[in-house]
Amino acid sequence: MNIEEELADFISNTKYNDLAADVKHEVKRRFIDSLGVAYSSMDSQPALKFKKLSGLYPGNAKMIGLNTASPDYSAFYNSLIIRYMDFNDTYLSLEPLHPSDIFGSLISLGSMFHKTGKDLITAAAVGYEIGARFCDSATLRKKGYDHVNYTEIAMAAALSNMMNFDVDQTINTISISLVPHIALRQTRVGELSMWKAGAAANSARNSIFAALATLYGFTSPREPISGKMGFKNIIVPDLAEDALRKKSSDAIMRTYIKKYPVEYHAQAAVEAALKLANEIDVNRIDSVEIETYEAAVTILADPEKWSPENKETADHSLPFIVASTLLNKDFWTNNYSDIRNENAKSLMKKIKVTEIPEYTKMYPESLPVKIKIKCGDKKYESEVIIPRGHYKNPMDDREVETKFIRLTGMVSAVRDLWNMEDKEVENLV
Predict the structure, then answer these.
(1) 240 three-class SS
(2) In this structure, what is the dihedral angle of CA atoms 362, 243, 177, 42, given to the nearest 10 degrees?
(3) Bridging pattern class, strands 378-384 and 369-375
(4) Residue 192, helix vs strand vs coil
(5) Nearest CA to 266 among 84, 45, 42, 92?
């Protein structure tokens, strides 16, 4: 079998009863986490702007917190608000991913076709597995391509499982989703825009279209990955097929929940800053040195990140995140009001970010950061190797609930979501 057939065989034949109990429970944790983030994003500018289009796309696919729309519009909107706050989960390997982005499309199609929580749990576990395998197989960002190319494959896989597609239909769905839609890394370079969240949402829209086209018999190229002009030969020639052939369905257990609403490479920095925040007088800070690994420096400390002008750039700005944490002794969604705060700007000018080769070698198994602060003749230092929420230091169920409730205020809703198995998807959001 070629790689498409092997992947499709796994995707189409994985059933709810095949999943380990801890995997099923972890999917529920991620669904709760993603919904909390989504509800908190509904009044964001991207969501408000995109909602104005809803009248142009009538349909019967559920939108989170709203009514219904066409499946492609619904999938875009759902994934947009899951992703916008940069507060949903993460996987870090050769390529990073936000695997819970897949829930937007699963909610859309699942509500249309009256799928159950069990269907969603199974499909999500499959999507997480496929997304993680591709992230383990090769980097995209260093070639100029965006990680959502892997997201789109994962979404197509998850939807194929949810729709009970056979091997041929699954390959067809992946092909229609992938072949016409190669996303560029320019989305995440320099000053960031609303498209930072829109890129994953667009992948959701594409994958929904692909699944529906497949459902009604529209055919596509048979070798989207291994073909002569396919994904591997043209886009990722170093794609390690052995990583794609793993015999497992528990990748979700190796992904990370975010405790703070910042890019994942900054999670440990927030923790380290919080350890020092109550020990220092921010008005007496002379200098702040942040020592970390290459990916964190490259992604979070390039020139545009030293003077962020919008939320999209600020949540990827290590100087801003550390400065705001020290000033507020906390970091939550309201910290982004500090973007134009003169005290934050002044403190950012005292910050230096340095790559430590030893830390780079520790990544991605660890995400180390050390913060050193000088206040006159006093020196303070804090190091975090693995932040809370990482699979090696996981948040417990109570912490996941607390995050959901702090974001939404919806106490009873989260309790119901723990028992989602036999509920219809349309009644979960």
Answers:
(1) coil
(2) -30
(3) antiparallel
(4) coil
(5) 92
Q: Are 300 and 263 in contact (CB under 8 A)?
A: yes
CA distance 119 to 167: 18
Please name the residues in contact with 249: beta carbons below 8 A apart, sequence gap of 6 or more: 10, 14, 18, 19, 20, 23, 125, 126, 129
- Rounded Cα distance, 245 and 235, in Å: 19
Long-range contacts of 393-402, Cβ-Cβ distance < 8 Å, separation of 24 or more: 394/257, 395/257, 395/259, 397/29, 399/259, 400/29, 400/32, 400/33, 400/257, 401/32
Residue in 211, 202, 199, 209 with CA at minimum distance from that of residue 11: 211
Domains of the chain from N-terminus onward: 3-259+393-427 (1.10.4100.10), 264-384 (3.30.1330.120)
Whether 92 contacts 364, CB under 8 Å: yes
Residue type at 258? K
Q: Which of 136, 380, 79 is nearest to 255 (CA)?
A: 136
The pTM of the full predicted model, rounded to 2 decimals, is 0.94
The CA distance from 280 to 274, in Å, is 11
CA angle centred on 417, ends 91 and 407, rounded to 5°: 65
For residue range 333-353, what is the model confidence (pLDDT) as tens digits? 999 999 999 999 999 999 999
CB contact burial 380-408 (16+ within 10 A = b; e otherwise) = eebebbbbbbbeeebbeeeebbebbeebb
As a whole number of angstroms, the distance between CA 255 and CA 88 comes to: 11
pLDDT digits (tens, 9 = 90+) for 129-176: 999 999 999 999 999 999 999 999 999 999 999 999 999 999 999 999
Of 250, 118, 105, residue with least CA distance to 173: 105
Widest CA span of the chain, in angstroms? 73
Angle of the 103-112 helix axis to the 21-40 helix axis, nearest 10: 100
Tokens of 270: 């927030």
SS3 state of residue 370:
strand
Backbone angles phi, psi at 330, to 5 degrees: -170, 165
224 three-state secondary structure: coil
Q: Are 315 and 339 in contact (CB under 8 A)?
A: no
